[in-house]
What does this fold into?
Amino acid sequence: MSDKKLNVGMIGCGFMAKTHSNAYSNVAHFFDVPFTPVLKTVCDLNAERAAAFAAKWGYENVESDWRKVVADPAIDLIDICLPNNLHAEVAIAAAEAGKAVVSEKPLARTAAEAEPMVAAVEKAGVPNFVSFNYRRIPAVALAKQIIDSGKLGKIFHYRANFLQDWTINANVPQGGKDTWRLNVKEAGSGVTGDLLAHCIDLAIWQNGPVKDVTALTETFVKERKNAVTGVMEPVGIDDACTFLCRFANGSLGNFESTRYARGHKALFTFEINGEHASIRWDLHDLHRLQFFDHGDEGTVRGWRSIHVSDGDQPYMGKWWVPGLAIGYGESFIHQFKEFLEGMACGKPAAPTFRDALETNRVCDAVLASAASGQWVTV
It folds into this structure.
């Protein structure tokens, strides 16, 4: 482990704070990173919840005012694991205080809200990063290597979906600690910003910029009880979204996301079809990459399943012996390994705030197209 310590101030203590805290705790055990993260302070408006989180994960201090964490000279990094409407204020204050900043995705509710965040971190010159963790699953990283090698040739099609089923019950409330993702004021959008943002980030990373989109959204449950006030309120988020797009490289995209696909808890897939070969990946089998090479001899030509667990495949050389798979949580360890290395060498790990702003712009275009019924340029 490095003797250089990086004191982390965690803002929020929900599910994503768990994934981040686990990653900070373990990254130096598996990778030779230039800094050893220290779980210094965790902050939540509910001091009792923060104290329980600190006891479980080993944070040294507890705070209920994020501004005090940002102002603390002992804190080097502010990690924002809050509802989307709170990202901007915390990130801008952290940058102005000279702190490195990590934010959960999406960067903000809209591109207009994200732009001052980008300006703040770039003006301050502080390291910044957005947690699109699926880039760091080894099979997904291997797919990126294959694409960049040119093995697929000219890309024709990119398709992705992210399907869940947890909001089908009309009695699920909106707002509050556990269901803020269903409240438009806190989330900004529904599946577009929450689930399709992951698909869009990967698509831009793997296949380049999105040029224009045409989209369709639906809100199946029109009213839900507010979890805080108990009052029935209109639902402003999208329960489902489907969109088509054209990429700058001339390929076509087809994306679908819903929280109303009974039987799917988190089905996230992508497939890319090229002139010479195709690849596809499925989160439910996340350690495997499917690959089809038209250059194979005809009698044995077909889809092959690559078990991504060997030492010469992305990240796997630092884990167990070949053949033993890793999972979802390790993707966060990988992303913080990249982030810490980027801090040390001055070459920022992606996606930075500016990179993630492009995903916000695509999400905005998708929602604008759904509202207007027209193609929208990104």
